[in-house]
Amino acid sequence: MTLPTFDFSPLLPAGRPAPAARWTGLARYSFVGGNNDSEQVPVDGLIDAASAVLRREGKTLATYGLAHGPQGYRPLREFLTAKLKRDAAIDCTADDIMIVSGSLQALDLVNATLLIRGDTVIVEQDTYQGALNRLSRLGVNAVGIPLDHEGMRMDALASALADLKRRGVTPKYIYAIPTVQNPTGTIMPEARRAELLKLSKSFGVPVFEDDCYSDLIWDGKRPPAIHAMSKNGGVIHIGSFSKSIAPALRVGFIVAPWEMLSRMLALKTDAGSGALEQMVLAEYCTPHFTTHVPKLTRGLRAKLDTLMEALNAQFGTSAEFEAPAGGIYLWVKLPGNVDTLKLYQAALAAGVAINPGPEWSTDKTHAGCRLRLCFASPSHEQIREGIAVLAEICRREFGVPARIANVEKRAHTSM
Ligand SMILES: Cc1ncc(COP(=O)(O)O)c(C=O)c1O
Q1: Which residues does residue 236 pair with via DSSP β-bridges, in sequence order?
Q2: How far is CA 330 from each of CA 67, 81, 333, rounded to the nearest angstrom?
């Protein structure tokens, strides 16, 4: 049925983002986004938790914020207080935490509090697309700092800060994903975190620590959070339940000094994040989080092995990568003649969705032949098949891999 259409376009102020494309479904082989393993969502535990908490406290849903105030459901903030102390050495109380609608809302609130058009911030050179997009939409200059196997390079950070200072620019924050970096998967060791704090202090620039993958570490060991190591309160720490439990719940959190939290609360205009999700998470996580997470990471680690085997088999030496310390992504470098923005289009037409490197980097040339593969959401079989199709497409478009290494070429009817 064709409805008569009202023309809204003359009403749209200039500078609004381009319209979104309509959702057309997931690709057959989807290696994109931060989706998790559907087999690992603790569905039964969540059902039990939902039913228990609703029976006990369901009537509190009658009040905005469950009568726990705008910072979120108190038992969830209490769970986080204990968890952050145990895992990340962060010493905070429930009053230092604000629950938000996914850590994406945390990014928006921090940015809305601190940034105006023309500002400068520091980011890792290869970093989260969602952070980069927000900055460019705000007209903020993002200075990328190269990474190595220990995360953001401190020599490069020191010279960038000194260079900006010479030019009279004080960046508003240093955004880092130090614990399982997105997309490279590195963990910044404690000594480097201390160096980062030293630079932050001497240049008067706060650290914005995004720790949303910190639960997904293969050996379960992590250095203290930068927030925990800071002596001057100049660190805003954010985290999420998206990676440890489920992204569709849309529950994240911010730990920050009241001076910042109070400003962000004034900008959080949604009258509180979804209460049922917060109640169910608190009820489920308090007794089960520490047993759920090692199971989840074991499964993710097995999928990473399948992905690395498939890449070795299909691409041979054409695909270079470092095994990440945890998380859900592999950052892959292909030969220099491969343009992953073009590969992305061709692969999508064949049913394989990948994240092209330039969307995840401040240096489009460096990232031009790189791609990010999420291994959490496809099954083992989809990983093997999808990488085989990707290799065929890459060879057809760019001549690499020159031939399929180690395995017999199979016909793929989906192509
Ligand atoms: C580094 C980083 N920060 C934040 C987010 C947003 O996560 P969410 O809003 O689901 O908590 C993501 C999602 O993939 C991410 O990779």
Answers
A1: 208
A2: 43, 31, 10
- Residue 274 in this model has a pLDDT that exceeds 60: yes
Please, what sign has the CA dihedral across residues 146, 148, 152, 154?
A: negative
Helices then strands (H, E): number in the chain?
Answer: 11, 14
Using DSSP, state whether 16 is helix, strand or coil.
Answer: coil
Query: Which of 382, 390, 277 is CA-nearest to residue 38?
Result: 382
| For the CA of 240, the nearest atom of ligand 1 | 11
Q: What is the pLDDT of residues 38-66, one digit of tens each?
A: 999 999 999 999 999 999 999 999 999 88
Name the nearest CA neighbour of 34 among 281, 328, 299, 301.
328
Residue carrying the six token digits 């007209």:
139
**Ligand 1, atom 13: nearest CA belongs to which residue?**
34
Q: Find the length of the chain.
A: 415
CA angle 347, 350, 356 (to 5 degrees): 15
Best residue among 132, 180, 184, 242 to mutate for probing ligand 1, ranked by most atoms within 8 Å of CB: 242
Structure tokens at 145: 């700092």
Using CA atoms, how far apart are residues 249 and 277, in angstroms rounded to an integer?
6
Q: How far apart are CA 395 and CA 373, in angstroms?
A: 18
**Angle (nearest 5°) at CA 89 between 86 and 92:** 95
- Ligand 1 contacts CB of residue 104 (under 6 A): yes
- Percentage of the chain modeled with pLDDT above 90: 90
Q: Which of 124, 128, 129, 214 to mutate to test the pocket of ligand 1 (most atoms within 8 A of CB)?
A: 128
pTM of the model: 0.95
Whole-number pLDDT of residue 2? 67
Amino acid residing at 398: F
194 C-alpha vs ligand 1 centroid, how far in Å?
A: 24
Distance, in Å, from the CA atom of 367 to the CA atom of 132, rounded to the nearest integer, reads 14
User: Mutate which of 35, 101, 104 to test ligand 1's pocket (most atoms within 8 Å of Cβ)?
Assistant: 104
Cα(242) to centroid(ligand 1), Å: 7
* Position 1 confidence tier, pLDDT thresholds 50, 70, 90: low
Q: Which amino acid is at 111?
A: N
Distance between CA atoms of 133 and 130, rounded to whole angstroms? 5
Distance of CA 163 from the midpoint of ligand 1 (Å): 30
